[in-house]
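Hi V.,

You were right to ask for the full record rather than a summary. Here it is.
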Amino acid sequence: MWGPKVESRLIESGRERSYYPLINIYIARHGETTWNAEGRIQGWSDPELSPLGYSQSLALLEHLKDRPLRAIYSSDLQRSYLTAQPIARHLGLPILRQTELKEIGFGILEGKNLFRFDEELKNQWNRFKDDRFSYRIPGAENYSDVANRLKPFMEKVLHQHEEEEILIVGHRVVNRLLIGMFMGFPLERTLKIEQTNDCLYLIERNGETRVFHYIDGEIREGLLLVGQEISL
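Predicted structure:
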């Protein structure tokens, strides 16, 4: 069984005793889709899980089947919902579909192969990569847009699930921002957070905030970063 012992903690702060609510938040990325396998940009588009993606949804079930989860959230895109289905059925929990958790919209790039852009699409992609928090590809969102729609959801989770364990099944960019926001990072730092389709994060808030990731059969404390792994 993967996960820490659940305890509450009171922290002394001068004269006052400040309570830091306990919550354990598992954050999974959806399983591989047919478009992931083809190198196509997804965004708000809604492709099916691939056979590997369905296997990854069953692996998520194996990781969490013995955890006392009290709620399961997914985005309203089917790749997120389908990844959450096996563990939800096993635990008899509904999947709470949240529009706020849908992937960043990529506008005119959606459905295009990342490795076969024409010059105009390549220019749009490079401008976005250079300024992900301000620049919008036509018809798309930027990282600031996504962070703004995630903030009320994050606050709701912290308020409604004190002393509980929950699962959130989202997407690469959404999860990158959500993890950073739960950890209290400056948003710019979230650009380095990586999560493959088979990587599961645990954020433990209990007086202090700690993060763990599960990948390749091992649990490690710290974040998986683009190109490297670090511990906090």
